[in-house]
Design brief:
The protein is an alpha+beta fold and 494 residues long. The protein folds into two domains: 124 residues, no CATH class; 344 residues, 6 Propeller (Neuraminidase), CATH 2.120.10.30. Helices cover 17% and strands 29% of the residues. The chain is built from eight helices and 28 strands. The strands form eight sheets. A four-stranded antiparallel β-sheet has the order 1-28-27-26, with no helix packed on it. α1 crosses α5.
Length: 494
């Protein structure tokens, strides 16, 4: 880097650091953030010892898929898996031999931009990217795409805090898309942020269906009352126990509070004043999840393979907190409605969090054609299969930490590795990364074992689109690669 570039990078880093400190420091318990970038190496044997399911159920590994996020079954029984950080969608071949494992695994489509939302309508596969919606013909019998992928909606607000889009088709044959907020709490410049938006299947006739949904990463239609129920992640930086995360019954034209209100019409300390009318007219959640446990995917049960008290219940993935002094979530729960409409939450799959140690982060759920429940885990990079009345063994086919720092860096050559690592070290200092990632244990997150969890491609992609609250830095592709070399070299793992 020349002297001018160094000073520009340093100035940008200082400004970013000030913003981050103001954002986090006022009401935050240091040490509570759980950045997925770091973490202890995971022993695959821990899973079978820790993970629990209700009596009569069993859990196994259906497939290993790196960065597994949204999952959706085709009519033919193949399971599609969106991997937003890898910019592709994979296909897990239908389990025709009935051994509880995918029969095959293949790349379906790549070259995407943060694909997350998946759904089928007629003979089309629809994909929600971070800034667009596309579709491609899909042969359900053969389990393959046909023709070319076409983006039918472009110019969506992308990037920033909640950049993933969720897409579903409703019973009305309309396409619904949720677009998360760009920030923790703010007034959005693009009115489509923090909303549910509806389109006709050709991507036209865009209308904002509902507002005030900070990050509704999952939604589904109840078979009991036909309503849309959406999870929502409450805002951060108001302490361990407020606000709750939410389940909302989403209705057209309604506002669900954010950023003016949290929970049941409680005025927001930053944006509540002067917005009393908006708070009074906002719609309260129908159910409160624990604060900060990050409910993501939700799926209602339509079949009858599970016990009677699970019929028409909802299964919800709680991704887990990053901003509590004691972690919470990191499990899958079932929601049960009684005759009065009261909702009861029960543990469905738990044990990913034990003694503050995390071995998994459930992200999405789906009911399979066999009546089993399938769960994606973007931390352990697997798809779980939970079934009733059959035996399964929870055993990983491959280690959860698939990379080796020596193998990753050996492709560079000694001289090139030295140059890139030196450039990465300069960037690490210029952007004051040590403020959040000091090695002395007093920082927001200590980085460890990065060489086991990432290669150069995946760590550069994480730096390009990090999880909140890590800022997005204005780095070039080459700079992200250099920083990745430095980080893997500095934190290689075992």
């Amino acid at each position: 880097m020349n002297r001018l570039s160094k000073w520009a990078a340093y100035a940008t880093g200082v400004i970013t650091l000030i913003i981050l400190v103001l954002y986090i420091g006022v009401r935050f318990y240091v040490g509570a953030i759980n950045f997925p970038l770091g973490g202890e190496p995971i022993d695959p044997k821990l899973l079978g010892q820790r993970i629990t399911v209700p009596a009569g159920f069993s859990i196994g590994i259906y497939a290993d898929v790196e960065n597994a996020r949204v999952i959706r079954f085709s009519r033919g029984g193949d399971l599609l898996v969106a991997t937003p950080n890898l910019n592709k969608v994979e296909l897990l071949g239908r389990d025709e031999n009935n051994d509880g494992k995918a029969d095959s695994q293949s790349l379906l489509i790549d070259g995407l931009n943060g694909p997350n939302g998946l759904d089928f309508f007629q003979d089309w596969l629809y994909i929600a990217e971070t800034d667009a919606i596309g579709r491609i013909k899909f042969n359900h019998d053969a389990g393959r795409t046909e023709g070319e992928y076409e983006r039918i909606v472009t110019g969506l607000p992308g990037g920033e805090n909640h950049w993933k889009k969720t897409l579903r088709f409703g019973p009305d044959e309309m396409m619904y898309v949720t677009m998360g907020s760009s920030c923790n709490v703010c007034i959005e410049e693009d009115e489509r942020r923090a909303t549910m938006v509806r389109y006709t299947p050709d991507g036209k006739n865009e209308e904002i269906f509902a507002r005030g949904l900070r990050n509704s990463a999952g939604f589904d239609w109840s078979p009991k009352d036909g309503s849309i129920y959406a999870t929502d992640n409450g805002r951060d930086m108001l302490g361990d126990n407020f606000p709750p995360c939410e389940l909302n019954r989403v209705e057209q034209g309604k506002h669900y509070g954010w950023p003016f209100a949290n929970g049941n019409k409680v005025a927001d300390p930053d944006f509540g004043d002067g917005n009393e009318a908006e708070i009074a007219s906002s719609i309260a959640p129908v159910f409160d999840f624990n604060p900060h446990n990050a409910p993501l995917g939700i799926a209602f049960i339509h079949g009858d393979s599970l016990p009677n008290d699970y019929h028409q219940a909802a299964i919800v993935a709680l991704h887990g907190s990053w901003n509590r002094s004691q972690k919470d979530g990191y499990k899958v729960v079932s929601l049960h409605w009684d005759d009065t409409g009261r909702i009861e939450e029960r543990d469905f799959v738990s044990g990913f969090l034990l003694n503050d140690t995390v071995v998994g982060r459930p992200a999405e759920v789906a009911e399979g054609p066999d009546g089993a429940i399938y769960i994606s885990d973007d931390y352990a990079s697997v798809i779980y299969r939970v079934a009733y009345g059959e035996a399964q063994k929870l055993q990983l086919a491959v280690p959860m930490n698939p990379y080796n720092s020596v193998d990753t860096l050996s492709s560079l050559g000694e001289e090139q590795q030295l140059i890139l690592a030196s450039e990465g070290a300069e960037l690490y200092q210029a952007y004051q990364c040590v403020a959040c990632h000091a090695d002395n244990g007093s920082s927001l997150k200590k980085l460890e074992n990065l060489g086991e969890r990432y290669n150069l491609e995946t760590i550069a992609e994480y730096i390009r689109r990090p999880n909140s609250p890590m800022p997005i830095y204005p780095l070039t592709e080459a700079q992200r690669r250099s920083l990745g070399v430095y980080l893997i070299e500095r934190y290689p793992g075992q």
